[in-house]
Amino acid sequence: MNELSIQECYAARFSHCFGCGQSHPTGLHLRSYLVDNGQAAICHTTPPDEYTGGVPDNLYGGFIASLFDCHGTASAAGFYLVSKGKPLAPDTLERFITAHLEVDFLSPTPMGQELTLKATPIEVTDRKAILEMTLSVGERTTARAKMVAVKCKF
Ligand SMILES: CC(C)(COP(=O)(O)OP(=O)(O)OC[C@H]1O[C@@H](n2cnc3c(N)ncnc32)[C@H](O)[C@@H]1OP(=O)(O)O)[C@@H](O)C(=O)NCCC(=O)NCCSC(=O)Cc1ccccc1
Questions:
Q1: Ligand 1 atom nearest to 154, measured from its CA
Q2: pLDDT tier, 122 (very low <50, low <70, confident <90, very high otherwise)
């Protein structure tokens, strides 16, 4: 596993996101790491208690979508770098933005436990990345997602 997270390698101007911006004062500061020789990306997080909703003691669905949103765009940037044969290092990343995100909620996701997000690439081109993702608690997958992330022109 890389010691540096993908988000730590974003340029400063791209570090303000609520979910994953390392410069956001109150955000989640998600960190996604390339694993399996760059063929997957993993993020571990334990959501704050206030993000419960729907079924009591379970995680709010919109929050689950936002975890996929942030982990997915970071993973897209990482997979793009890998596709170019470049190593992860500060200020080396293109930034990807979510164009399409679909989520299947398979079973309620409990509060107070560490969650694991995993992304794998389906297709990476010069313009976009298509990814599959899962959200798991221990061995149980509670949600899965598919994303199209487009490389930012700005
Ligand atoms: C930039 C873009 C996503 C795409 O427009 P353009 O640049 O003109 O790109 P173009 O249309 O040329 O397509 C290129 C390729 O992509 C494909 N494709 C495109 N769309 C879809 C689709 N829906 N579904 C499926 N595929 C789609 C399209 O077919 C084409 O494929 P091809 O290469 O022919 O095979 C624009 O619609 C937009 O800004 N949307 C709002 C995004 C937003 O607000 N997201 C939520 C906030 S994200 C956040 O918070 C994090 C963040 C913050 C800051 C920074 C970074 C991250």
A1: 55
A2: very high
Nearest to 147 by CA among 39, 49, 73, 51: 73
User: pTM to 2 decimals?
Assistant: 0.95
Which residue do the tokens 């794998």 mark?
120
ipTM score over 0.85, yes or no: yes
Q: Where are the alpha helices (DSSP H) in 2-121?
A: 61-83
Residue nearest to atom 10 of ligand 1 (CA): 150
Contact between 122 and 133 under an 8 Å Cβ cutoff? The reply is: no
Give CA–CA dist 92/99, Å, rounded: 22
Between the CA of 128 and the centroid of ligand 1 the distance, in Å, is 8
Atom of ligand 1 nearest to the CA of 70: 51
Pairing status of strand 96-105 against strand 40-45:
unpaired
pLDDT at 70 over 70: yes
The number of beta carbons lying within 10 Å of the beta carbon of residue 99 is 11
pLDDT in tens, 89-108: 988 899 999 999 999 999 99
Query: How far apart are the CA of 151 and the centre of ligand 1, in A?
Result: 7
Question: Hey, is 65 helix, strand or coil?
Answer: helix
